[in-house]
Amino acid sequence: MSRRMIAKVDLAIVGAGIVGLACARAGAAEGLRTLVIDREARAVGASIRNFGFVTVTGQRAGTTWNRARRSRDIWAELAPRIGLPVVHEGLLLPFYREESDAIVAAFLKTDAGRECALLDPDEARVRAPMVRGGALRGALASPHELRIDPREALPKLADWLARTANVGFLWGEAVSAIESGALRLASGATIEAPRIIVAPGPDLRSLLPDIFTRRATRICQLQMLRLADPGWRLPAAIMSDLSLARYAGYADLPESEALKDRLSRDAQDALKAGVHVIVVQNADGTLVIGDSHHEEGAPLPFLSSDVDEIIMREVTRVLDLAVPRVLERWNGYYPVGPDDAFIDRPAPGVRLVSVTSGTGMSTAFAFGEEALAGFTDTA
Are 234 and 280 contacting, i.e. CB atoms less than 8 angstroms apart? Predict the structure, then answer.
């Protein structure tokens, strides 16, 4: 595309993270000629700096859980079509504190828990021998989850959309202005489109910052690690008691208060750092573990060894990792706010879409369909 050329499409999307690609998929399914613009040369943000853990169980009851269930089904359909391996399926949440018993029992009585099961300690360790015994009280098992590698998923999804779905990509181009019917690029080019979706991820300042301010949106920073192959294979993603106090599908239950109170006494440093346990495995056997959550205004520029040690401590309480060897460490950033996600309409034919709960990989496909709803016949 020439630098000065004016392009005309049916749908222009700013941002090629998972939310932007989900909107592109939804637009292409409606037969819209779609163009995705991203200021980076490739995906480098939150959409590749995560677990690739498509999480259903534990999501906030109602809209977010429904989005996760729908998105999980879309991932399951798309993965073989785009050449993306599903590394493992399901969730196993071993728990060790007495206060967790009541949370799991209550959760299993909810609509979201109907297809899940409670395993006793022996059953849990038969399914996952790497789970530590000792004080193990049981494990919540879910069949819903998928695990894909986000470093593979984003480029393969973009490539598939470009090859098969009439979606164009303009990489390395920054958008400088948005108005009804047109995008202005920093290079001087103009993109004309009756429908414009802005999906900026954690960039709260460059485009439409007044909306993020009004929505009380801020940045959450996390830390994650990749460990060497431990010599065993996970049958499912792993969580723990700490996740019962963090994920809204459990934490919103009245029964969670006793666990939160206990954790405030015996896991203060983990709570302060926002640490809970997620462990997933790559096709090469390496483990991705984490994570932490910091919402302190400006993102911190440095990784904290103290936070890494807390994460490692909590993971090794759950899993048998004799001498974990760290291969990589990284930060991630994503927007958070009072709502799990929102769609705003700053001008006719323009929509700002944002997942503000760290659930983009789990909910974006369904959210993208919602963003396009009522936006295809008329802008």
Answer: yes
